[in-house]
Amino acid sequence: KIFAKIFGEPKIVNGETEAMKQIAMFLSQQKLTSAYELLKKYSAIYIDSADLHYYWGLFYSLSNLPKKAKVFYLNAIEIDSGFTEAKYNYAFTLHSENEIAKAKVEYLEILEQNAAETRSLNNLASIYIDENLPEKAKLLLHKCLKINPEMEMAKKNERERLSRTLDTINKRFGASTITYGINKAHNGFFERG
């Protein structure tokens, strides 16, 4: 009896898990009306559920309402500070909304908790490319591709965006401004696609 009071009724805990599965299924199928109905229903029951706030954030992201999505992702993070998916989606939404400084802080926090989180490695590298910090970007992209050699966005960032940035810097400041490794020149280092 005491155990049930501390940890809740098993049917309530199991009910929340089942509810989250249903919501996730509808969101993954982009059945937003059905997802909305369940989100609304379960919000009255599971008030402090980080998962529920996260799913509201996904709902608003899929509905192309990033400002509302950010609020719910942030709520999920406040409830569960170790909720990496919520942090990533919050950072990605900030990044998409051109709130680069805030996104950068979030990506760095994610990587502090989980240095192998490849999406954050790639997106932070993308920010560094945009900021003309190719050395930092290169390190992150290499780490990302070492962890997940099949990550297409990281390959594209390395092959195209970083290479273009390096070419621009070398044109502007001299052909050998940026080199890699011990005297390894940039030319030919990247594959062109």
Question: Could you describe the 3D structure shown?
Answer:
It contains 10 helices and 2 strands; from the N terminus they run ααααααααααββ. With about 190 residues, it is an all-alpha fold. A two-stranded antiparallel ribbon has the order 1-2. Strand 1 and strand 2 (about 185) form a beta hairpin. Helix 2 runs antiparallel to helix 3 (about 30-45), helix 4 packs antiparallel against helix 5 and helix 6 runs antiparallel to helix 7. The longest helix is centred in the C-terminal third of the chain and has 22 residues, at about 150-175. The radius of gyration is 21 Å and the shape is elongated. The model is unreliable at about 1-15 and about 180-193 (pLDDT under 50).
